[in-house]
Design a protein that fits this description.
By secondary structure, this protein is an alpha/beta fold. About 25% of the residues lie in helices and about 25% in strands. Strands 3, 4, 5, 8, 9, 16 and 17 form a seven-stranded mixed sheet that branches. Strands 12-11-10-13-14-15 form a six-stranded parallel sheet.
């Protein structure tokens, strides 16, 4: 076994993480070892640490960038020294209909999550990228294009691809009318992507103070959802609404803003209850969601970001401040993604 260091929750429901030694498997023939340099702090990390799925002893982290440090004998695509990115899944069956079309995130045999998942070979529980090293199959380590800052690119691997797939599925491009509800980790990237694809983008927010940020990110308009007159005037205005709000909320007002055949894609909190089906009938509206991304769209998104110079807006903290990051994230005090610098794990524990 290989040994490394990371941050783990030792108490159920606690966001207090402890620096611990972590065992990584010896490399299988098609494995690579990656020195993790940066890892994003996702809202789903927070919710799982708080007990969403009843898990314990989590090492979170599924938005990582780093450098390949070792390769198995069957590895052909990557080499030691290559910059790579790691996302939310690290394996799949590779044979089902979803895997065959590059949607491993929907694998019928269930994809292996980067943390809190079950390894398909030895049955062990996967430990995430709040750690200095990660070992995974070469197929799920993505070359990081030149020109993308590794810290700012890390959130692309969850927040980014989570909004990229539904935008692409909806055919967003010039002439599209897109609204983004919520301007957080997912939402700010949805605005950047939709604008870069050529859409007319409106940010839906409860806070008029976010107008300056929204316009700077590429939005053309801001709608304050607490203003009934603005909401009423937006009836039927949008082809797609990317709902990135992480908390429970009423979807009915958002559906009212969709035009004929419009789609509401619930991305920030897909576990919440949906509206009555009758709400969808006026205008043949569609309610959808999306679960991160498969390999095909991840490669496509990284290439698009490299061409357009798109990354997340991040605040980088030493990994020793992960507790601060989680507390501030819970309070909504981040613009727009925390990223941990894992290099401090090289130093002896205090």
């Amino acid at each position: 076994m290989r040994t490394t260091t990371g941050w783990q929750s030792l108490e159920p429901g606690s966001t207090n993480l402890t620096r611990v030694g972590i065992e990584r498997r010896d490399l299988r023939p098609d494995d690579v070892a990656v020195r993790v340099d940066h890892c994003g702090v996702c809202h789903s990390d927070l919710r799982r640490l708080q007990g969403l799925l009843g898990e314990t002893h989590l090492v979170p982290g599924h938005e990582a960038t780093g450098v390949v440090t070792a390769v198995g004998p069957a590895v052909t695509r990557l080499a030691v020294g290559d910059r790579v990115a790691i996302g939310t899944i690290v394996d799949s069956c590779g044979e089902c209909a979803m895997c065959r079309v590059g949607q491993e995130n929907y694998c019928y045999e269930r994809p292996t999550s980067t943390y809190g998942g079950t390894d398909r070979v030895d049955g062990s529980t996967t430990l995430g990228a709040y750690s200095r090293e990660y070992v995974l199959r070469e197929a799920f380590a993505f070359p990081l294009p030149d020109g993308l800052d590794p810290a700012a690119a890390a959130p692309l691997m969850c927040a980014g691809v989570s909004v990229w797939e539904p935008l692409r599925a909806a055919g967003v491009g010039p002439g599209s009318r897109v609204a983004v509800a919520g301007l957080g980790g997912l939402g700010h990237l949805a605005v950047k992507f939709a604008a870069a694809l050529g859409a007319e983008v409106t940010v839906l927010t409860r806070s008029p103070a976010k107008e300056r940020d929204a316009l700077a990110l590429g939005a053309t308009d801001v709608l304050v959802t607490t203003d009934d007159a603005q909401v009423a005037a937006a009836r039927g205005c949008f082809d797609l609404i990317a709902d990135t709000i992480p908390d429970d909320h009423d979807l009915t007002p958002l559906l009212g803003m969709l035009g004929l055949d419009g789609t509401l894609s619930v991305l920030g909190n897909p576990v919440q209850a949906g509206p009555p089906v009758m709400t969808l009938t006026a205008g043949r509206k569609k309610l959808s969601s999306s679960g991160t991304g498969g390999r095909r769209h991840t490669v496509e998104m990284l290439g698009f970001c490299a061409e357009r110079g798109i990354t997340a807006d991040v605040e980088v903290l030493p990994s020793s401040e992960v507790g601060t990051a989680l507390k501030r994230l819970a309070a909504g005090d981040v613009r727009y993604r925390f990223v941990l610098d894992l290099s401090d794990l090289d130093a002896p524990a205090a």
